[in-house]
Amino acid sequence: MPTSIDICNAALLSLGGDLITSLDENSNGAILCKQFYATTRDELLRLHPWNFAKTRASLTEVISPVPAFGWDNGFTLPTDPYCLRVWRMEDPTDKFDVEGRTLLTDQNPANIVYVKRVEDPNEFDALFIECLELKLAVKLAFPLTKNQGTATAMENLFRARLIFAKGINGQERNTDETSSNTFIDVRDE
Hints:
Elements: H1 4-14, H2 28-47, E1 54-59, E2 73-76, E3 83-89, E4 96-99, E5 102-105, E6 110-116, H3 126-145, H4 148-170, H5 182-188
Antiparallel strand pairs: 1-6, 2-5, 3-6, 4-5
Helix pairs in contact: 1-3, 2-3, 3-4
């Protein structure tokens, strides 16, 4: 079962750094991991609607007064679990806007699918863990190695693995939407 320390150590090892046993120890690696781990995790969660981090909520608490213009209703976004990103409304054609911690829409109630903050690494998908290790290594690379080439190489590796992980994650759903291949559509005209 992975821990945040395991994830940090994988990032440190990929840069040739020393292992840590705690984020509170007095080492450069631990200090940097403590600074970057939580924000990097949340950043990665916001990048994609990871299946393990998606949840649903029916927002019925209308903010008063209603928005000054443009929308009929405003709703406070969920805090437990904390909403990092609204992915979509229940009906994908429903329009909405997020301003601060408020969802604005003409719907009432507002049924949403959102990405929640997941702090327990045991709930993470294995490919998400790999991406988190790599993204953390990107942020640690220059402070630890003082080598921009290493940072760039880690960024390129992260981007490639992120594309792969998002693709696999996206295959775990059944959708009625028909997809179109633009190349074939253009060629057939």
